[in-house]
């Protein structure tokens, strides 16, 4: 089954490209793996006001911003994909790495809010971050990647590279 135009566009906005569409179609559901893990950790840290958990996820987000392979992608590439018999996840492009940087800063703000006693601010920031991450996990629409494209005036071609 071919990749829908909407899904293709949302993945392109994040900077993903593919060489083989049939292979890529098999990967699309698994491209939710990393954002979903992030949402689980951030949502749990927020719901329980666990500042140490929020601080623990900050370096993961920073590494995701710096390197083309997110730490959670390694969990998929060297673990889950062996069980699912699917190809490895593609490297993250600049838009998705920018999004990881935004998440890192947002997490720092959330953790500082909880840590300094501004609990309602922590719940607000963490709740919004969890919601935005859930949108990426469910629909592949990434607000921060879209912002990156807008700020750098990078249009999307409408076609994935071969």
Roughly how much helix do the residues carry, as a percent range?
55-70%
What fraction of residues sit in β-strands?
under 5%
Q: How confident is the prediction overall: mean pLDDT?
A: 91
Can you tell me the residue ranges where pLDDT is under 50 for at least 5 consecutive residues?
A: 158-162
Secondary-structure element series: HHHHHHHH
Number of domains: 1
> Rg, please?
16 Å
How far apart the termini lie comes to: 18 Å
Biggest beta-sheet profile: none
Number of helices: 8
Report the count of strand segments.
0
Walk me through what this model shows.
The chain is globular, with a radius of gyration of 16 Å. It starts with a helix and ends in an 11-residue tail after the last helix. The chain contains eight helices and no strands. The relative contact order is 0.20. The protein has helices at 5-13, 21-27, 33-47, 51-66, 71-84, 94-115, 119-139, 143-151. The chain has one domain (5-151). The chain has 162 residues and is an all-alpha fold.
Q: Topology of this protein?
A:
Blueprint: H1 5-13, H2 21-27, H3 33-47, H4 51-66, H5 71-84, H6 94-115, H7 119-139, H8 143-151
List keywords for this structure.
162 residues; globular; mainly alpha
Summarize the structure in short.
The chain is mainly alpha-helical. It has helices at residues 5-13, 21-27, 33-47, 51-66, 71-84, 94-115, 119-139, 143-151.
